[in-house]
TrEMBL record:
Principal cellular location given in the protein's record: Golgi
Gene Ontology annotations for the cellular component aspect, listed alphabetically: Golgi membrane
CDD domains xrefs: GT29
Domain of life according to the entry: Eukaryota
Keyword Glycosyltransferase tagged: yes
Protein name as catalogued: Sialyltransferase-like protein 5
Keyword Transferase belongs to the record: yes
Length: 481
């Protein structure tokens, strides 16, 4: 049949055939491109074209979790929005016109209005913290390679040397602060309140709510008395202090031995002299270095609390929009800046189920945490992020809770002094140390006992920085066994 004999409809169809063929060809090319990208995405590091058995369900799980985080930020972020980049990365943005008042003198710019975060790395890091020890111990220094020579020197100020060439001297300076093994346990408390020092606490009356927690964490010189009781409560269990504040602890504590002190950074002879006058348990913080805008003693308090608590409620942190001045609830205002990056990171932590934020702009809220992903959603996202991380580094996936142990060591659970040197006996004669270090395992809540059994009595510590794969892991095993 010639072209002249075609009916109009058939002629029109014939004219469309090249276009249809072109579209089909483009669609096929697109599919091949997608398959190529996926193949390279799932390829083993250094082995082009070799596909790993990574279940695409992990990527879908993380993508779905990103959507839940995005929804949570929209509902709880007080103006923040989350823009998803891929299954791991997102950008938290402040609305246009947000008052950015802090000027970075190094880079000659004002604080930006958006911050990129890797949710996979973040959830792995903070879930790891739930299994860790965050107090410096003697067993950590004994097990860590060159722990006494190199690391111990970093925790002592005014030593006069960059290494502990004189082990005896370093031992004398640190022993007053060193328990033999972890004094606290993961899952030890069900609910904890981390209370900052922000002046916005005076705009609320969270006192009774704070005191209802199983344990309360406070910072530096924050007073706890009847004057501020309705705002910040009266319960006192832990206090994380910088070394400057450590010198002033005696009048702050006022003879109370129930509050354990954790010094954030360093010790030296002057601090040790103060410690010897206190009946309180005193330790050095052993945590990671978060290179984020949300830093300082408040963030360290959250790290400390997460290693002991199931649920963390955060009070007295400057996280609300429009807050342009640093204030303390117990002192006059002082010049500061609007901590945009800090606020963004805290909001991310809330939407990852790490903390729950309480502040003046949320004071009238209904206690509805439905926007925050459930424990099961977090568990699945953590498992997917863990699988993805292991595949990216070419490591076996199923290694259990000790997959990131870089250094292993074994100590006798009964070795060494509980805490403090022999000349501390008089100061601590009436101390309530049994509330902490001497608490037997069977006295802990069921969840803490179960965790201890699941971990086989192994303690996990960070080696350095915020890397995920550099843990020091210590077995507690009797020498006779």
């Amino acid at each position: 049949m010639t072209r002249a004999h075609l009916q109009p409809a058939a002629l029109a169809a014939a004219k469309r055939r090249p276009t249809v063929a072109l579209l089909l060809g483009l669609a096929l090319a697109f599919c091949l491109a997608v398959l190529s990208i996926q193949s390279s995405f799932f390829a083993a590091p250094g082995v082009p074209g070799r596909r790993l058995d990574l279940d695409a369900g992990d990527v879908r799980e993380l993508a779905g979790f990103q959507s839940r985080v995005q929804q949570c930020v929209a509902r709880r972020g007080l103006g923040l929005t989350a823009d998803i980049i891929d299954h791991c990365k997102l950008v938290l943005k402040f609305p246009e016109g947000t008052n950015s008042t802090w000027f970075n003198t190094q880079f000659k710019i004002f604080e930006p209005l958006e911050y990129k975060y890797d949710v996979c790395e973040t959830i792995l890091l903070w879930e790891q913290y739930r299994n860790m020890t965050t107090v410096l111990t003697r067993e950590y220094l004994d097990v860590r390679p060159d722990g006494w020579l190199d690391y111990a020197a970093k925790r002592i100020s005014q030593l006069g040397a960059d290494k502990c060439y004189n082990r005896t001297l370093c031992d004398e300076l640190l022993s007053i602060l060193l328990p033999a093994k972890p004094p606290f346990h993961p899952r030890q408390f069900a609910t904890c309140a981390v209370v900052g020092n922000s002046g916005d606490l005076l705009k609320t009356e969270f006192g009774q709510e704070i005191d209802a927690h199983d344990a309360v964490f406070r910072d530096n010189e924050a007073p706890v008395n009847k004057t501020y009781a309705k705002h910040v409560g009266l319960k006192r269990d832990f206090r994380l202090v910088v070394r400057g504040a450590a010198r002033n602890m005696a009048p702050i504590l006022k003879g109370s031995s129930d509050e354990a002190l954790i010094i954030k950074s360093l010790t030296h002879k002057e601090i040790n002299a103060v410690i010897k006058e206190l009946p309180n348990p005193v330790y050095l913080f052993q945590g990671i270095v978060l290179r984020r805008g949300a830093k300082g003693t408040g963030m360290k308090s959250i790290e400390l609390a997460l290693s002991m608590c199931d649920v963390i409620d955060m009070y007295g942190f400057t996280v609300d929009p429009g807050y342009t001045e640093w204030t303390r609830y117990f002192s006059p205002p002082r010049k500061g800046h609007n901590p945009l990056q800090g606020r963004a990171y805290y909001q991310l932590l809330e939407c990852l189920g790490v903390i729950r934020i309480h502040s003046p702009m949320r004071a009238q809220r209904v206690e509805d945490w439905s926007a925050i992903p459930s424990k099961e959603e977090i568990r699945r996202a953590h498992a997917a992020a863990f699988h993805l991380k292991k595949h990216e580094t070419g490591q076996p996936v199923e290694l259990g809770p000790f997959s990131n142990c870089k250094v292993w060591g074994t100590v006798d659970p009964d070795y060494g002094p509980v805490s403090g040197t022999s000349d501390m006996s008089e100061a601590r004669k009436n101390s309530n140390y049994s509330k902490w270090e001497l608490l037997p395992l069977e006295k802990l809540r069921r969840e803490a006992q179960e965790h201890y059994i699941q971990m086989g009595g192994v303690s996990l510590y960070k080696m350095d920085g915020n890397k995920l794969d550099d843990l020091v892991c210590v077995r507690h095993q009797h020498s006779s066994s």
